[in-house]
Amino acid sequence: MDDRLHAAPIGALTVSSEGVISDSNETAQELLGGDPSGSPVAESDLRSVEDSLLAALEEPTDEVTFEEYYPELERWLSVTVTPVDGNVTVYLRDVSRRYRARQTVETLRSERRRTAAIDETRSEVVAELVSSPSREEIERTLARELGERDLWSFVWIGERTDGTAGLDVRAVAGETGDTFPAVRETIERPATTPEERAVEQQQIQVVRSIADEDGIPEAVRLAAFSDGVQSMLSVPLTYGAAVHGVVGVYADRVDAFSERERTSFETLGTVAGFAVTAGRNRDLLLSDTVTEVTFEPGADALLVAVAREVDATMALTGTVPHESDALLCYVTPTDGDPDDIAAAASNNPDVGHARVLGDSGTVEIELHRATPLIEVSSLGGTIRRATYEPDDSQIVVEFPPDSDTRRIVTSLTREYDLDVRSKRERERGATTAREFRDGLAERLTERQKTALRTAYFADYFETPRGSTAEEVADLLDITGSTLLYHLRAGQRKLLSAFFDGVGDRGE
């Protein structure tokens, strides 16, 4: 190799007719990580999947150029093989930056296509919701929109089973191969799969490489390897504290789900969870009959224990679940001291805080313990009333008539210390909008109605406000503080009628 090649800015190798590297310049040595002189090409790091270099050296009659990826070097190289006087000169140029830029563009385009598909699926779910779908229709929409595209290998939808940690298969779409049958068999046995973890933890679970994930059963890993399925994502279908099921998405690429895609899937899971919740609530609201189940909580239930400790009778007036898995419970004593109830609850390690709310007598209790009060909602029920007494407590729940009540009751009684006291089908009298307004009007005082009506038509509740509090007060010839008092009292009754139907609280 002459001095000109030794000083060349591209790599250069001299290869003998026997395929042995006899000389190299400094650039080639930098690319190869050392001086390869004396090594056969077949034993060097210049081996690609196609082995085009070895093929070109076998019959070096014409100059040939190709670009390939060399795994040992972790580089893309442009290689030119030129026969010279019985030897061969091999020119090497690192083109990795160009290939990586191209791959980045292709990756971003693919990610955009997948994200668009997720967004389209979300739109389809919302459209289905508007057309009053059943849960089955929502699940079929998810499976169809995600599984019948060429972006992922297959998709399946699961639902929590009755009282066990397993899942029931609700829908599946795509090229399932041997992988999905292995998944189905696994979820029917006691095992912790990413789908089951997603339901339990209410969080997306990502598996970048199925083959390397010890948390996936071996049977699933082997089947996925055979099918070329390499990564997966499990998305819980949640809304508030309710967990309705899970979507398992399987892909033929390692680390197939970018951060952006995970966020889109998470949003899709929430939208689908909301759609299922809304459908159940609609079924319950529109049904002429409901299934009413009365449960008796066990003696160790927290609110039962509090009632027994202070010898009080309490009525549950509302619950508010938090994303931190805490539940705010609001109870009003019909017999007992609110301060004693708050003090007794505060001494329980599962209570974050307990306090009496002003002069109303209502006690707010932040509960950090698994409770059927949350689970009932996730299973499609609505708590109509709950009372806690030292020796006689009950929770009355309504379910839509088409619910699988037997399965739901089995699930609740297995997971929680509950006994079924009664179960009955009953007709529910329909309340018209006129009847609702008339009933609400009876609860509002004349001053409250006048204040609310004037503020409403004066655009006081708009953003930005069309009138200030002072302007509305001047219209009524009262002070601003008096107006705000009447507005708060009236709004309280409106909210009470909307959220729980609780009667007049004396405002």
Automatic annotation (TrEMBL):
InterPro entries on file: BAT_GAF/HTH-assoc, GAF, GAF-like_dom_sf, HTH_bacterioopsin, PAS-like_dom_sf
Residue span, Bacterioopsin transcriptional activator GAF and HTH associated domain: 288-438
Domain HTH bat-type: from-to ranges: 444-495
Compositional bias per record (Polar residues), positions renumbered to this chain: 19-28
SUPFAM superfamilies: GAF domain-like, PYP-like sensor domain (PAS domain)
Domain GAF: 134-276
Regions that span the bilayer: none
Assigned keywords, A-Z: Transcription, Transcription regulation
Disordered: region residues: 19-43
Source species, domain of life: Archaea
Identification of the protein by name: Light- and oxygen-sensing transcriptionregulator
Organism, as annotated: Halapricum desulfuricans
